[in-house]
Write a structure and sequence with these properties.
Blueprint: E1 8-14, H1 18-29, E2 36-42, H2 49-55, E3 61-64, H3 70-80, E4 85-88, E5 94-95, H4 99-109, E6 115-123, H5 132-144, H6 148-155, E7 166-169, H7 170-176, H8 187-196, E8 201-212, H9 218-221, H10 223-237, H11 241-261
Parallel strand pairs: 1-2, 1-4, 2-3, 6-8
Antiparallel strand pairs: 4-7, 5-8, 6-7
Helix pairs in contact: 10-11
């Protein structure tokens, strides 16, 4: 008798993302994963998002009420989630075909690991691939780092792990808790450091998600704030002066490239 695939819980925090959230929902539901729990935590949208959620309410759980922001919404979803495997997908990002099946198989085949990550494409508001330099740079580190110590050292300099392509076991959540709600932009970066205390991660060497960049993205509207908060997170876990210097240098170079390309 075949064992039932592990239950996967996906949480989508949302607030006034009518233009994108339906595509996000479809990318999750179209996975056709046989043991899926999909939770949308909406912060009280007033732009028609709720009408879209009602359209899919037979296939997902949704809540719409005021919250304290994205991190708070994710944490509320985590408290509801009952899956053995957990991930969150923002309301403008997408999963690619067969992502959840690949994630499930990877966890089954690597029972000693608490989390995993894969490759992630960056797209614009129309779904066109952009920022290929940034994607290739992240992929370089994903492909060339294996030892946990080296991965952690590089993570202290740059966040090469893409949030939409990262998943963890419920057991990990029980051990380290939810996201730090004092962080507005880099709560995921902080979470990777905490997951690293449990185990190395497994790397799926395939594109499994898409991260959307558009005018209302946090990374576009609050770029400087995001980089500043990211530096604070890195410094929290690694106070080495050389690491701190390299992190600052990387931020400056990245911001300069984005400005040259007109991305911010």
């Amino acid at each position: 008798m075949l064992k039932k695939p592990p239950k996967i819980s996906i949480i989508t925090p949302s607030y006034n993302q009518r233009n994108y959230i339906e595509s996000t929902i479809k990318s999750v539901l179209s996975q056709n994963y046989p043991n899926l729990e999909y939770i949308v935590m909406d912060g009280g949208s007033t732009d028609g998002t709720v009408d879209i959620l009602k359209k899919y309410q037979s296939k997902l759980k949704w809540f719409s009420q005021k919250d304290k922001g994205q991190t708070d919404a994710i944490n509320k979803g985590l408290k509801i989630a009952s899956g053995e495997i957990i991930g969150y997908l923002n309301s403008d990002d997408l999963y690619l075909s067969e992502t959840l099946s690949k994630v499930s198989r990877s966890f089954i085949n690597n029972p000693e690991l608490f989390w995993l990550t894969g490759k992630c494409q960056i797209i614009n508001d129309t779904g066109k691939s952009i920022r290929s330099i940034a994607t290739d740079w992240k992929n370089f580190w994903l492909n060339n780092l294996c030892e946990q110590k080296k991965r952690l050292a590089v993570l202290s300099i740059l966040n090469y792990i893409s949030q939409p392509a990262t998943f963890w076991r419920r057991e990990a959540y029980i051990k380290i808790g939810g996201f730090d709600d004092s962080l507005k932009y880099t709560m995921d970066y902080d979470y990777w450091f905490r997951l690293m205390t449990l185990s190395n991660y497994y790397f799926i060497d395939e594109y499994i998600a898409e991260f959307r960049v558009h005018k209302r993205s946090k990374g576009v509207e609050y770029t400087n704030e995001q980089f500043s908060e990211g530096f604070k997170v890195s410094r929290k876990y690694n106070s080495n002066i050389i690491i701190k210097t390299f992190h600052r240098m990387h931020d400056i170079i990245t911001l300069s490239i984005y400005r040259i390309l007109g991305n911010i």
